[in-house]
Amino acid sequence: MLEAGLIIRALMRNKIGALLIALQIALTMTIIVNAIFMIQDRQAQMLRSSGVDEANTFYLTNTIFGQDYNIQAALQTDLNTLRKTPGIVDAIQINAIPLSGGGWSSGVQTEAGEDKDSIGTAVYMVDDHAINTLGLELIAGENFSATDIQWRQSGQSTWPDKVIITKALALSLFPEDWQSALGKTVFISQNQTIQIIGILKQLQAPWNGWDGVERSMLVPFQMESKGSRLFIRTEPGKRDQLMPQIEKMLAESDKGRIIRRMRTMEETRERSYQRHNATNKILTTVVITLTIITGFGIVGLAIFSINRRTKQIGTRRALGATRWQIMRYFMVENLLISSVGIFVGIIGAVSLNMWLVKTFELAPINLELILFGVLTLFIVGQLAVLYPARKASLISPATATRTV
Amino acid sequence: MFSYYLRLAWISILRHWGLSLVMICAIGLGIGAAMTTITVNYLMSANPIPHKSEQLFYVQLDSWDVNDPFDEGVNPPDQLTYTDSTNLMKASKAFRQNVQAQAYGVIEPDDADLLPISVTARANSADFFAMFDVPFIFGSAWSKDSDRSKEQVIILSKKINDQIFGGENSVGKTVKFDNNIYKVMGVIDHWQPKPRFYDITTGAFNESEDVFVPFSLIAEEKIRRSGNTNCWKPSGDGMAAFLAGECIWTQFWVELRNEQEKQDYMTFLNAYVEEQKQYGRFQRPLDNRLSNVMQWLENQEVVADDARMMMAMSLMFLTVCLLNTIGLLLAKFLGKAPEIGLRQALGASKATLFSQYIIESACIGFAGGLLGLGLSFLGLIGIESLYGEYMQGLATLDLTMMTLAIVMALVCTVIAGLYPTWRACNISPAQQLKSQ
Fold first, then answer.
1. Record: contact B108-A293, CB cut-off 8 A
2. What ipTM was assigned to the predicted interfaces of this complex?
3. Contact A294, A372 (CB under 8 A)
4. Largest CB tally within 10 Å, which of A29, A118, A389, B273?
5. Is the minimum CB–CB distance between B67 and chain A shorter than 8 Å?
6. Looking at B256-396, which runs of residues are DSSP E strands?
7. Nearest CB to A65: which of B106, B234, B313?
8. pLDDT (tens digit, 9 = 90+) per residue, A20-35?
9. Which of residues 177 through 196 in chain B touch A, CB cutoff 8 A?
10. A385, A399, A404: which is closest to A312 by C-alpha?
11. Closest by Cα among B39, B33, B34 to B399
12. Residue-range domain boundaries for chain B
């Protein structure tokens, strides 16, 4: 590039203009690389499966207020009716809903005692129909049998003696080999024993932002409580049609309670990730607008610098420069300015990322993304300068001879 | 002169309308983005009770596990055990004190046509209403005696009073709440502090409760608790064991009118914990805290990370837009070099030229500010619809914010215009005139 030296010397005469564009490109690079990084981070979280058959499941809250109410009998009646209803695959009572944001957790440890480390896990209190209702996959061991299920009074502090855990929890308890967890006895509430009888492929906890979101545990409990949730799985495609029917049926079968908050798992997922989704949309808008603004800034400045140099361009043309040479001049000029901007931008992007890592506990950025940013901004710069450069190349050599 | 310069600016803006439009759009977008995120942050960090926030204190005591400190020892637990909060309540050492927890239940209206209503409730002490300046439409708070004697009294929100009693004065009437009969003591007007500072543990931007009942009824098992419960030591079976156990689920607020009262209360808290240590509780080092409203909101990080991050992003975005404006103004003003040279030759001083071009920049800034204001309205609507309940009511522009938008746009553009204007004023007339 023989012209480069010449262009640099010309640029030095209008340092500030070039510097402003370079700075703008640097900041744009800093922002878009980090914004895209944050978008990708959230998207990866949203793509995780909950382990539940989300397309065909829904749940509702059952609040009992009637006096002298036989909670145990009523629950059995409800579950029996639901399980017999055509179109319904299975139904259970459950204490918490995956992804919903509210639930129970407890600590599980491999050694008993107050001073031993425990691992936090979500607790789902369910019966032997849970695996079928939630649509879970049991990869080792066995399901609960009907006789394992116990009634739990509210405020009860003892646990049943069998549990089914997720593979992620097994791996946290026995880091060397998750399969070895099967059949082992571990401790809950510091010193009560529980035996692991089955391992699930996956079941997420109710809290999507928790770092232990994959750790959860099924406990064979039916709750004798005045507020509980019923979780229902339908045959594919029948959910929407069955939901209002079931709400009506349950509400009318028993006047001592209120059936409310009926919600599908799909809606729960949407609500759970609503903030992620919103933030992503906003960040996407920022990335797009910023790129456009920077592009327009380059166009505007290039047009003006060309207007100011009309005479010089005319002279060059008169001295034999081809149109392509004129165009190339401005494109190379932009390339030089962009390079400076992008170089500073890389430093900026990495520093901003370091700050984000420190302040908001984000992960460090990857190289591909920086390369992507570099490439995008070079292309945007070249595209933006294309129109002014073409305009410059159309300046007629006769211009040079005019005085104004 | 001012109006003359305004007209000159208008002519100049129109002549380079494309360029002016790019500048106005850039400033508008920058201001719009910045104002949207600043508003959300401003409302999230607003003082919900400005006249009293320095006198209301949230109490924290470190009753947690000595082997596994709460929050890794950085902060004491965010709630109190039932034992501690009832002891503090009994001691009654502050000007006002309130123990509270979240609850829920079902109201069965007497009117057979009305369906049972599932309601959110707050179980609190009599002082709650006076402490937090809760506005009453009818009646007033229950008395401290009602707390002590566990009377079944209730205060309804306007919403519930409208639903059950059609908005009439219902003081003295009764309500069936979770199978118990409660006497209505008062009805409160719409009351929604933002953030809902009095209970952050169940969501800083949740709606305030439907009904209010005495906290002492929880121990009687007449009120069903909800909200967060956190235990470090297993408690035995049953309600009595749970209440006596090391579970935190109550919140305790005190009102202390001056520094002296605050110091006295702190001394009292320290003495209380020392006394409890004799019973083998509070094995962790002394770490009692009294945080006023704003300190407590800050400690609980009520302003979401998302919002802070977006604000940082949008301020950088604004910077890019301003750099853009500086560059374009520079190009524009330098493009006028012949004109400026001519004016200088005809006797215009640098000062007049300076004011002329600064006014032109300010005009562009004003237009950008107006556009930005419009865009921030749209932005806030967008944020509210995207975030749903979480941002409900947080996305409104008040007069302060609107003024800020315009002022920010003007100041930013004038600052952006300084350098280009300075350059324009320093054009040497001789050189410009020579080439003409």
1. no
2. 0.78
3. no
4. A29
5. yes
6. 289-292
7. B106
8. 889 999 999 999 999 9
9. 178-179
10. A399
11. B39
12. 2-45+304-435, 56-299
